[in-house]
Design brief:
Length: about 200
């Protein structure tokens, strides 16, 4: 699968950026080599803003999807991006999903994890057939991946869904994995109905 538009899910905390700046630089290098379009959450803060600035500096087309209430709260847009304004956080994710061929989550907090799991849930339900992965810098996502394995072992996640989350510590390897990841496009509901 050729991935030309990548949505990067990233945290907005400025204090965390220093630990992951190099990984973001490497990711943008890979996006530039693939001549990708970057889709992101629109805010000029933390890794979210940094990945957009890096991409713009490298002449990539950047699309920021942002709810209007962020502007009302005083959050800034990254200058020079294509801006898509929406009303709610749910619409924001819906629009990012619509515009993207695949998803990469960088280390982040509640918002990043919520978006990541919403995407995986849509894949599981057969409503989104686009690959998703995490850039596992310094093992940041190791506990999350272990939790997915535990959920699978306990019977909460089917084995065909447990493998939907790609992971690599190197951006190039992650992009290769995303390009070859098979995401089911049909819902398999048998065994889920109550008797």
């Amino acid at each position: 699968m050729i991935l030309k538009t990548i949505c990067v899910l990233a945290g907005s905390s400025p204090s965390a950026l220093q630990h992951y700046r190099h990984a973001v630089d490497e990711l943008v290098d890979v996006l530039v080599q693939g001549q990708c379009v970057l889709v992101f959450g629109g805010v000029d803060l933390g890794m979210m803003g940094y990945v957009a600035h890096c991409a713009l500096h490298r002449k990539l087309h950047v699309i920021g999807v942002m709810p209007r209430f962020f502007l009302e709260a005083g959050l800034n847009l990254v200058p020079g991006i294509e801006v898509v304004m929406v009303d709610t956080m749910a619409q924001r994710l819906e629009e990012m999903c619509r515009r993207s061929d695949g998803f990469i989550a960088l280390p982040g907090g509640y918002g990043t994890l919520e978006e990541l799991f919403s995407i995986l849930s849509m894949q599981q339900l057969g409503k989104l057939a686009k690959p998703c992965g995490v850039l596992n810098v310094g093992g940041f996502f190791d506990p999350l991946r272990e939790q997915v394995r535990r959920a699978e072992a306990a019977g909460f996640v089917r084995s065909e869904h447990a493998c939907l989350l790609a992971a690599a510590s190197c951006p190039r390897l992650l992009m290769d994995e995303l390009s070859s990841l098979e995401v089911p496009s049909l819902v398999k509901w048998e065994g889920l109905r109550r008797e």
